[in-house]
Amino acid sequence: MREDAATRSPWILHFDTGSCNGCDLEVWALLTPRYDVERFGMVNKANPKHADILLITGPVTKKSEQRLINLYNQTPDPKLVIACGDCASNGVPFLDCYNVCMGVDKVIPVDLYVPGCSCRPEAIMDAVVKGIGMWKKKVEEADR
Amino acid sequence: MTDAITGLAMLIAVPLLIGLLLGIDRRLTARMQNRVGPPLLQPFYDLWKLFGKERRAVNQAQVSFAAASVLLQFTAFAVFATGGDLLVAFFVSGAGNLALALGAFSSRSAYGQLGGQRELLQVLAYEPVLFLVIFILGWQNGSFLSDAFGENLLYLLPLALIAMVPVVLITMQKSPFDIATAHQEIVSGVYVEYSGTYLGLLKLGHWFELAFVFGIITLFFSADDIVISLLGKSLIVLVFVFLAVLIDNSTARTTRGDMVFKTLAFGLGLTIINLVLLWIDVSGAIW
Hints:
- The complex is a heterodimer.
- Chain A has helices at 2-6, 22-29, 62-74, 86-90, 121-143, and strands spanning 11-16, 43-44, 53-57, 80-84, 112-114.
- By secondary structure, chain A is an alpha/beta fold.
- Chain A has a single domain, classed as Rossmann fold, CATH 3.40.50.
- In chain A, β1, α2 and β2 form a beta-alpha-beta unit.
- The longest helix of chain A is centred in the C-terminal third of the chain and has 23 residues, at 121-143.
- Chain A is globular.
- Chain A starts with a helix and ends with a helix.
- Chain B has helices at residues 2-32, 42-52, 60-81, 86-105, 110-141, 158-162, 164-171, 183-186, 196-218, 226-250, 256-280.
- Chain B starts with a helix and ends in a 7-residue tail after the last helix.
- Chain B is built from eleven helices and no strands.
- Chain B is globular and about 55 Å long.
- Chain B is mainly α.
- Chain B has one domain (2-280).
- Classes of the chains: A alpha/beta, B mainly alpha.
- Chains A and B meet through α1 and α5 of A and α2 of B.
């Protein structure tokens, strides 16, 4: 029962690691009346200490690498990381660039990848709903 | 004995009702924005989740202040619910707000510092109004004990009840007076450095604070029939929540100076007019 209640309230932190703002706009679209993710209890908290799910966009520039690590470390367990868009998943639009880390998973562990350039809001919602299942497992593990 | 049981029942039931009220508030807000909104029990899910998260604090002082805040707010509400003195409950609740501000000051975060200062300004804005409302209630009733209220005061003190609107807006952290927890400006201000369980504790403290403030509002109405009495009290609370949500969705956040000025001018003004009218009309010619 505790896991059920806990996973009904995923709070979001959205961080832009050098994205072109395409995926960021789609993340913000989730909060609009059309998609309304507050139906699932999701609220954008803009604060790593309150967050449960990290929605990361962008290929992780070298400048934002340490900041991303800080944000990840500041988020209390159990937490979930979702890489939104092609840049965040594998950095491919920036292939061979000198100034990027080529994807979020090169810096912090990632649980789910959302494809697309930019990723559609429906795809992000799909990932978050899948993510809630994974998060439930993490809550159960944390209880043991 | 029955008083003790009623008090105990209120201690348990009222915070649960406040959680439900916050759920109604969030759903109403969503409907006003043409959204579906979260389930009615969402505040309980949030609290439940926060208590299950990792325990992590910036420093020890922060934890003590969070605990002090929730204990003081609970004590204030418990004094009220068990028929105690309204003034005692008022000052203990004020101390709880002070603990919340001190908790925000205990970290070196700039947002926390700003949030703490703004929390103190909010206290400066609404506490004189709340104090005067409690004073006029007690003066009219003849006693400050919350279980001594059995008389309908609504027709005697209508302006004092309207003066409670900005107080409710501030304590419910609603626009235009949500300056201490301003999400877009200072990332939830006083709460910024708290996480997991300790954030949950502060949220619970906020529920108790709301329980006390809404409790004051329910004192305005009373009837001989217990059912009508309870219905009237609930109706007043629901009207206040609806008003708060309506104002929240139709105004932008104001500045801190503006908040202090408006709340004091509106709240104290109305309450003093009410007081003066009562003084002039001791014989009961107007009302």
